[in-house]
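Researcher: We're teaching a course module on how sequence relates to structure. For the next exercise, students receive a sequence and then see the predicted structure as tokens, so they can try to spot secondary structure elements on their own. Here is the exercise chain.
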Amino acid sequence: MVTAASEILHIRRPLRTRRIRGFTMGLLPFSEKDSPTKTQTALDQETNRGTSVSSASDSPTRRSGRRSLVALVLLGIMVALVAVGCDADAHQSVLSSTPWTLDGANGPVAREQLLLFNVLLWTMVVVFVLVEGALLYAAIRYRRKPGDPLPPQTHGHTPLEIAWTIVPTILILGLGIWSVFVLFKLEPGEAVALAREQGKEPLHVEAIGHQWWWEFRYEDANPDVEGSELITTANEMRVPVDRPVIMTLKSDDVIHSFWIPKLAGKQDVVPTKANQMWFLAEDAGMYYGQCAEFCGTAHAQMKFRVHALPDAEYTAWVDGWGGELAEPLSPDGAAGQLVFLGAGQCVTCHTVGSADPVNEVGEGVQRARMDTYIAYTKWLQKPAEERLEDVRAGEEPPTAFAAPNLTDLGARTTLGSGLVDLNRETLRQWLRNPDDIKPGNRMSELAAIYQTRLDHRADLTEDELSDLVEYLMAQK
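Model: And here is the predicted structure for the students to work with:
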């Protein structure tokens, strides 16, 4: 009996343990005769092995690799789209369609800047390709595969670390020293020295940035002739070929940036401060410029042009600027002059027939107009009741503000800071409603004749508009 009892206990103990284990694993208890066969166990092992292989094939490492590949493809597509949008022959690009050449630059300043840019760019491209190429090669060639043990851990490689410290240092020092020498060549003193070598005097032009147009002032438009007349023009600057031009840059309101890509690089135009730059146009032609600093609503439409003329043409332009008109006004033009001086109130902000003089401290007609505009905007901030009392008492401030000099308007090629070609039709459209051509301009915002109608069109008849167009087109 003792023996039988011990055998019973010996048999049941494993069953109890198996039952507990079965419940712990979420399985039903089974007897010895219901236990899986060796064949079934082998099949389960094969199934488990297949499942583990499938899991390995979709491991986090592989998913990360696929994401990286997708990111690289998208980056490549973006770079291709940007490259397609580039145009080396565009008006406002100094780049050439042939890499490494300086064909897009005109004059010593633009060439020096483009050469430095090319060397910097291609040096960075070479360094990027070498570094990223080594990184990609190492990532692909020595990537860890599933099941690989952890590789031996090494610390540092002294010769390699010294090399990749010294080489970049030499590159940075070399390019930095070269950049400093180029900066010295961009100083106005270099222009003076170059002009003296040619037996000439440099031409000095003052560029003043306004929202949103450019004013150009020539204190001495013909340096080779004593007592040369003062010239004030707008948006189109004329310079002689092969003569250094020193630009003095000022702003009447906010920060602008003066940029003629094919002649010289960008230079900030900062209120209360005068910056200088210079350029020299070796070939006659027209060069496109742009404000390169966001300066308000119409920033992208603040363009200008530089006409590089042979000496004879430039001298003729200087001699013929201002004074009496080349031809007497027609009857329509004479009627337009009355509109300019009267119903149109154009004379409040614009000058015709003479330059806008400036005294030794930089104060003149345009400065006075700007001060008036500032005073008027301050007056608008007063409560409506106080403004009404000022109007009744005749103390309302004038609304003049800085505006382009129109003395040579008929000789210009563009209108609205280079936005459209100048002709009678575009000038008529501009006078009727400037917002149709240049949204955000100050003229339609502040000029009195645009404030009396809900559609902000000029409060002039069609005949008055036609006469005004004839008068302005006669200004040559």
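Model: If you want an answer key for the exercise: The first strand starts at residue 203 and ends at 210. The radius of gyration is 39 Å.
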